[in-house]
Structures are given as structure tokens and as C-alpha cells.
Amino acid sequence: MADHLNLVPFVSVHHMMQLVLEIGVERFMDELTAYLEEDFRRWEKFDKTPRVASHSREGVIELMPTSDGRHYGFKYVNGHPKNTREGRQTVTAFGVFADVGNGYPLLISEMTILTALRTAATSALAAKYLAPRGADCMALIGNGAQAEFQAMAFKALLGIRKLRLYDIDRGATEKCRRNLAGLGFEMTACASGEDAVEGAQIITTATADKQYATILTDNMVGAGVHINAVGGDCPGKTELHRDILLRSDIFVEYPPQTRIEGEIQQLDKDHPVEELWRLVAGKAIGRCEARQITLFDSVGFATEDFSALRYVRDKIEQTGLYTELDLLADPDEPRDLFGMLLRFPGSSLLAQREKGLIL
């Protein structure tokens, strides 16, 4: 990358798609998961705070910041379920990765695609520790924008080959089947959620409605399954019946955030949960017996975006898939910012001074 202090690498949507395709989706997921795993193992080094959210009737806009003391990262992200009716994305995002030592940004990146990738990679990372051994079939309830990413991540990390698909919108299921055709899956389109979970060792829920919902009822969840609950990610938005939570061993990213936004907002504030970082670091036990029901209550946390930005920055150094933005002021003398205006070609200030119009 260029050494000019004013230039910052920017990864556009176009470049992100090129990067993912050049690396390969499954390899991208696998490598990204390694970065996530590495950062979860050093969890205690990170600043941690629940995301800063601005809620409205239409949706939410959030900032997700964190730092490991050397680098700082944040993501701007929204969630507006009504957007699909207007031909817009439900979720859009961008992120910044910066040097703590001088405050200069090292990377600006689109994160709409990258968030989809890191969400799926985090799900697969949790399932690596929690899913039944030898699992090869996953129910995927909610076949919107996140569904294919979940499928590819679980294929890359756990070898999932069988998918049982269900969405209240049959068009979404057909979209998902069409997109995943020829990528190594045996897919079944199901007529109901009850049908979808039949024979599945892993159940992923990834729905978008911003409301208390019951996508999974208690009778749908048998012994020994792993539940990957992705859709519940803000106050008032859930997918699982409370009784399922009471039967499950629950794993979360950051309890102060998940108790506000996740499935466990339905439970008492002192209901026991385990943190994912402790599982990854070998400080907690995951699946320990065959009939155990495990639940990853996924809401997304800033360290995961940090890991994703860190991964992308490392990869673009090798590929050159970025644009340089003239983003930072770089005066000849650091304290002479106004002088930059005077010396700018065609500066009206300089012309006025030369004509004696400025006293």
C-alpha cells in the first residue's frame, strides 16, 4: 500500500466481491474463522461495550466499537426490515480499522457483504464446539440474505451437506435453492418449520421481522440438537419460545449486550449463560453429552467486526483490491493546516491576498 499519509485504502462492494471470489467462499470463511478464533482467545485484551443503538419505529442504526490496544475498529450498521418492500437491503454497513498509536485509519471498508460473512463464520465457529459430532444436516429457517452464507460457513467448517429449508416466503426458499445449486448440498424445501427440523442435528433460525416471534416452539426441539439463533438481535425481537431456552445450555458473545438484544432477554437477568470466548479459550465446556441441547444466542459483537476488518486488511495487501482515498489532511507542516488552503492550486484566498483584497 502507498506510504502517503493522506491516502487510506478503501474496499468497495465491487472490490469485496472480487476478494471473496478470488480467495473462494469456503476458503474465505475458513480463514476468517481463524481470525475470529484468534481474537476470541485474546478476548480479555479488548475494550468491550454494548453497541450504541438509535432505535426508531422503522428500525435501528448502530455503532459497534472496540480496540485491542494496538488497533481500533468500528462498524456503522443498520437494521430496517421494511426496506425489502422498497427494494433496499435490510442491513447495510461500513467499517473503519485504525492505528491506536496515531489515530490514523488504516482501512475503510464496505461491511454489508463482510458482515454477512463474519456472522456466518461466527455461527460456524460456535457450532464447531457445540454441534453434535458428525452432524451433516442443518435446518435453515429463514431463507433471506443471510441463509446462503450460513450454509457455506457450515459446509466449510463442519462439513454440512444436507439442508432443510423453510421460509414463510416460498420465493426466498427458491432463491436460496437456486443460489446454492451445484455447490455440494442436498437440499429439501420444506412446507413448515416443523417439517424443516425433522432429522436435523443443527437448527439455524435467521428471520428478519422486528417483533417477538416464535419461530421455534418447544415441541420442535428434540434432545441432542444444536440451535444457532441468528435473527434475534435487538430489544423486542426474538425467535425461540422461552421454554426452549430453559432446556438449553446457552452460549453468548457478550452477556451485557445479549441480555438486552438476544433470545435471553426473555429470561431472568441472572439466568446462567456461558461466554463464547471462554469456550474457544478452553476455559469452559461445550457439548459434553449426546442428549444435551446447546444454543448459540448470536447477536453479533464488535470484536467480530474487528477480526473481519483485520483479515481484509491483511488480504488486500496481497491482492491490491482497494482504492486509495485522499481522506486525511497532510500539510507540509503539521501545524499549518490553514496554509494548505492558501497553497492549494487556484486558491481564492491566495489570489485575494496577492491582489491586496485581504488586509
From TrEMBL:
The record's listing under InterPro entries reads: NAD(P)-bd_dom_sf, ODC_Mu_crystall, ODC_N
Q: Which Pfam families match?
A: OCD_Mu_crystall (PF02423)
Q: Can you tell which superkingdom this protein's organism belongs to?
A: Bacteria
Q: Which SUPFAM superfamilies match?
A: NAD(P)-binding Rossmann-fold domains
Q: Which Gene3D superfamilies match?
A: NAD(P)-binding Rossmann-like Domain (3.40.50.720), ornithine cyclodeaminase, domain 1 (3.30.1780.10)
Q: Which family is annotated?
A: Belongs to the ornithine cyclodeaminase/mu-crystallin family.
Q: Which PANTHER family does the protein's record reference?
A: KETIMINE REDUCTASE MU-CRYSTALLIN
Q: Which NCBIfam families match?
A: PRK07589.1
Identify this protein by name: Ornithine cyclodeaminase
Q: Which organism is it from?
A: Chelativorans salis
